[in-house]
Amino acid sequence: MRAEDAAAERAPENSRTSEAGAGWACGKPGSFYDLLPERVQAFSWRRPSVLWRSRNDVIARLFGDPSPGIRRRCVAALTARGTPAAFTMHRSTPEFSFLLLGDTGEGDRSQYAVVPPALRVGEDTDFMVIASDVIYPTGEAADYPDKFYRPYQHYPGPIYAVPGNHDWYDGLQGFLRVFCDLTMDCTPDPWHGPLALVPRLLWRRPGAVDDKALTEARNRYRGAPRQRARQPGPYWAIDTPSLRIVAIDTGITGVIDRDQGAWLRQISAGPKPKLLITGKPLYVNDRREPGPIEGGGTVDDIVRAPANNYVAAIGGDIHNYQRYPVRVGDRTIQYLVAGGGGAFMHATHTIPRTRLVDEDDFRCYPLRGDSLSRYSKLYGRWLRLPSLFELTPEEATAVVRHRLGIEPARAYHSVGADSGAVPSRRARFVAAVLGVPKGRRRRVRTRLPVAKIPQRFRSEMADWDRPPFFKSFLRLDVDEERLRIRCYGVTGCGEHEDRPPVEDEVTIPLRPIAPA
């Protein structure tokens, strides 16, 4: 038997091979239950108070995003303090590994479910990166002890982060205190004119920062010398002989301010291969979201420029996993969504049959059928109509195949997921109501708020705290010749903690380009 075949035979099942691999039938509970605090914080997006605390997102989109002004003031303070040149940290070894978790900090079971498999897979990695939304709902400093320091107390290396929109709802105070050791309120007053009174009155001001409590939490949970790190700012880079990692701060609405844009252009120049980490993905749900920069241009323009030699771009914000291998000229750039690190799950069954890349090359986790089945069970329970709404994973896979015209990744034979038989009227109704597109159309006429209203308000419709969780995290391994990215699925089942299923994997050659 070849080594490759032997390795494949030993690999654990995943959602693409079986329902058991997807976590639909847990053999034993996950050990993460033992990690939970005695009293799990009651966190729910269904609570009006949580939505009200998160109101700055709506205000920023209606009246203007203040994050560029806040960022400039904070970066000026960091620069005056003596932050590393070009906001860059350096590693001398060409070979290294790191974990990447996106959108982590709800502080509940779904966040803790990711911890044991991530620690198992990442026990020998050099560092961890949290990409977007370290703390929900408003990024407050008071939430860091229970939602950051405690969950990751046993990760042995340093943890870096890029802020997400929720981290910005307190003016980034908590984030800057924890990751940059900056103690100041950078919040300006960005609104002027006759209507300025409205956002000034509605805007949620930053909460108080208890430096003593943060210091105690750090010393108690992550006080080992190797665990401690101070990153240069809300955006930063790690330069190594083989790869440059560039991390950007996309604020609340995804706009890059002029100063950060100038830094990004500067740090991106040159032939060395580069990886972008961003708070918002550039490709998501079969749409290109290029990321505008104040004064003109986009983040994706910089990524696509051949002279900059970007090989991949990874963004959080959307709480699932997606990968788009996009041809740009004579090369392929891997665009990934990696927001499955602990928060509520965003549906994948609402993703249309892909047009930006060939459907056979597109990857997502959870699979569309598993996503539809999970949502159908939620709606069946909420509406007290389980006999109408609930679809088994097999039924959901079949109806996704029927509506999208795609071949399922997981093989079935009895209901029509592989045979092409027309699913039941009930299954077709549920799929249409819950937002599965028809063919290549991006919209359907009849659907509940799963995909029709903004993410900001449909979050409450996609939160549960028992397996299968369909969370995920990435492990990235780098050497002088290649970057290997693996997406690990998190079910919450005990049998998947020691050997979490690999849901996707891609190896990218690292070749410096010849100067023009």
From TrEMBL:
CDD domains: MPP_superfamily (cd00838)
Region (Disordered): 1-22
Compositionally biased intervals (Basic and acidic residues): 1-13
Superkingdom classification of source: Bacteria
GO MF entry, a single one: hydrolase activity
All residue ranges annotated as the Calcineurin-like phosphoesterase domain in the record: 97-182
InterPro entries assigned to the protein according to its UniProt record, in alphabetical order: Calcineurin-like_PHP, Metallo-depent_PP-like
Pfam family, one: Metallophos
Protein name: Metallophosphoesterase
Organism per entry: Actinomadura rubrobrunea
Lineage: Bacteria, Bacillati, Actinomycetota, Actinomycetes, Streptosporangiales
